[in-house]
Amino acid sequence: MAELDADLDRIIPSSVLPPFWAKLVVGFVSLVCFARSYDGDFVFDDSEAIINNKDLRAETPLGDLWHHDFWGSRLSSNTSHKSYRPLTVLTFRINYYLCGGFHPMSFHVINILLHGGISVLMVDVFSVLLGGLQYTSRGRRLNLAPRSSLLAALLFATHPVHTECVAGVVGRADLLGALFFLLSFLGYCKAFRESNKEGTHSTFWVLLSILLGAVAMLCKEQGITVLGLNAVFDILVIGKLNVLEMVQKVLHKDKSLENFGVLRNGGLLFRMTLLASGGAGMLYVRWKIMGTGPPAFTEVDNPASFADSMLVRAINYNYYYSLNAWLLLCPWWLCFDWSMGCVPLIKSVGDWRVTAPAALWLCLIGLICQALCSEDSHKRRILTLGLGFLIIPFLPASNLFFRVGFVVAERVLYLPSAGYCLLLTFGFGALSKHTKKKKLIAGVVLGILFINILRCMIRSGEWRNEEELFRSALSVCPLNAKVHYNVGKNLADKGNQTAAIRYYREAVRLNPKYVHAMNNLGNILKERNELQEAEELLSLAVQIQPDFAAAWMNLGIVQNSLKRFEAAEQSYRTAIKHRRKYPDCYYNLGRLYADLNRHVDALNAWRNATVLKPEHSLAWNNMIILLDNTGNLAQAEAVGREALELIPNDHSLMFSLANVLGKSQKYKESEALFLKAIKAHPNAASYHGNLAVLYHRWGHLSLAKKHYEISLQLDPTASGTKENYGLLRRKLEQMQKKDV
Q1: CB neighbours (10 Å) of residue 94?
Q2: 238: DSSP letter
Q3: In the chain, is it the N or the C terminus that has fewer CB atoms within a 10 Å radius of its CB?
Q4: How far, CA to CA in Å, does 543 sit from each of 139, 514, 537?
Q5: Separation CA 57–CA 60 (nearest Å)
Q6: pTM for the complete prediction?
Q7: CA gap 72, 83 in Å, rounded
Q8: Can you tell me the distance from the alpha carbon of 515 to that of 131, in angstroms, rounded to the nearest whole number?
Q9: pLDDT tens digits along 622-667
Q10: pLDDT band for position 254 (cuts 50, 70, 90)
Q11: Residue 633 in contact with residue 664, Cβ under 8 Å?
C-alpha cells in the first residue's frame, strides 16, 4: 500500500475502502451536493444555447450541427464565437427530442448524473495518480492508494466551484469534455497492462485514447489537453524519468546521458509521436472547420488582452491566475460572470493586488522545486502529476496562446480542480505524517467536506432561477455592469419597470459604453412615454455601436412617436441594412407607412415581415385590418385564410377574419370563427361585441342581446357597444309593441 495511504489511516475509515463502496459513497455525495438544481429553470446562457438554438429542433438537419457553433450560428459567420462543440449540442437535441420540448428538469438531471459519473471515475483516476500504475498477472489494475484516492475524489465531488457546470445547463460542455478526458486518460493507462514486459504497450489502447481525446474536444475545446497529460504521465510514471537528474547531466555534459533509459526507449518515442500527431491532426481539422479565424471579443470581455503595454497584460493575466487559484482554495465568493469591471485592470506595479500573483508564483515555485528536487520518487510523481492536472487543462483559458472571451470563468476550473484536490490530499497526508494530532486533521478534513457540501447546496439553489442567480452576484461583483443589467432585465420581464430603470442606470454608469443597457433602458422609457430621454439614449447607443440593429429599430419607434417620420424611416432602413432578416423592423416600418397613409408600402413591409417570420401574427393582423378598412374585403379574406393556415390557433387572426367575413355576409363562417376565438380568449370584450354586431346584422337578435350584455360586463366603458346595444333594445321594444 502507498505510503500516503498509510499516513491517512486515521482520517479515512477502513470500512469504506472496498472499491464498490468507495465509488458508491462518492457518487451519492456528488448527487446530494447538486440535487437542489434538478428542478431549476433555464438561466443566463441557457436561453441562447438551448431555447433560442435552432440546432435542437427536428427541422434542422443533423448535418448542420457540424457546421454551426455552440450557439447555433454558422462557424463561417464573422459574429460566431467559434466554440465548436457539436457532440454537446447533439446531447441537448436528444434531450429535447426525448422529453418533447424544452423541459428544464430533464436537462438538469442529466447534468447532475454526469457529475456523479465523473466523480466516480475520479476514484480510479486518483488511484493511478496517487498509487501508481500496477496490474495483476490477469491484467487487473491494483488500487494502491484506496484511502487517498477516496479522499481526493470526495474533495472533487463536493467542490463548490463546480456549481456553474452542474447547475447551469450549458455547463454540460465541460462535463462531457471532462468525462471523455478521464476516459482517455484511463484508456491510456490500459495500454500498459503488460508493462511487466519491458517497453511493451498496446497500440490499440493508445489510439483509442487519442480518439477519446478527440471526442472530448468535440464536447469542449480543452478536451484536447488530455494528450498533454497522457504524455506527462507516460514520461514520468511509465518511463520513470527523473527530470532533475537529467538536467544535471545535461549541465555537466555527462556522457552517460547517451545511455539514459528514457531517451533509448523506442516504445516511448513511438507513443509520443502518436500523441503529437493526433494532437496536430485535431488542431488542423479544428482550424479548418473554424474557417474565418479566431473570434472577435470586445474590451469589456477581457480588458487585459486589449492593454497596450505588455507589462500590464502580463501582470493582469497573472492576477487572473491568482483569482482562479483563490476560487479553488476558497470557493465562497462565486459569480455567474466576472467581466465588465468586476475585476478592475491593474495599471501599475504599485497596485497592492500585485501581491496576489507574487504569492501564487511563490507557491507554484515551491511545489515545482519539491516536484523536481525531492529524493522521494513517490513524492516527485504525485506533485508533478498534481501540477500537470492543475495546469495543463487550464492552458486554453490562460490567454497564452490566444485571447479568450472572459476574465475569470468558474466553468474552466472543472478539470483543473482535480489537480488541486490531488495536491490538497497529498498535503493532508504530509500533515498527518508529521503530527500526532491525527483526530484534529480528521476533523479539519470532515469540516472542509461538510462546508463544501453546504456551499454546493446553497449555490445550487441560487442557480435555480435567474432572479436569485443575478442578485447573488451583486455582493460579489458590485462593479460588474453586466450583473446590474441582468438584474434589471429580470425585473423588467416581471413588469417591475421602476426597479429595472434603477439597475439599468447603474449599469450605464458603471460602463458608459454599455449599449445593450442603453437600449433596454430606452425601451422602458419609451413605454413610459419619456420619449426625449429614450431618444437620447438610443441615439448614443447607435453612435457607440453603429451596427446595433435593435437600437436603430427602437430609435425609429421613438422618432415615430415624436412624429419625426422621416428620421424614423431612416432609422428603420438603417436597422434593416445591418440586419437584413429583421421581421420586427419590417413590421414597425409598416406601421409608420400606415400612419402616413402609404398603404401599399405598409402592406409590402408587413408582407416582408411574414416572409421572414411566417408566424408573425401582428403583421398578418395589420394586413387584414388595413385591407378591411380600405374596402378590399376579398383580398383581406385571402390574407386572413393564408395567415390561419400558418397560425391556426391564433385567436386574434380568427377575430380579424371573422369581421371581414361578416361584412361579406358570410355569416355562418364568420360566426364559427368568432365562437372559436371566444373559446380561446373568453374575456375579450371586443370579441363578444363584434359577434353581437354579426348577430344583430344577421337578425339573430336574442343572441345579439346576449353577447352585447357579456361584452358590456367585461368592458362597461365601450361606447360603440353601448350605442349598438341601445339600438338593439329600441328595436326589440318596437317589435314587442307591434306584437301587442
Answers
A1: 12
A2: I
A3: C
A4: 68, 12, 10
A5: 6
A6: 0.86
A7: 10
A8: 55
A9: 999 999 999 999 999 999 999 999 999 999 999 999 999 999 999 9
A10: low
A11: yes
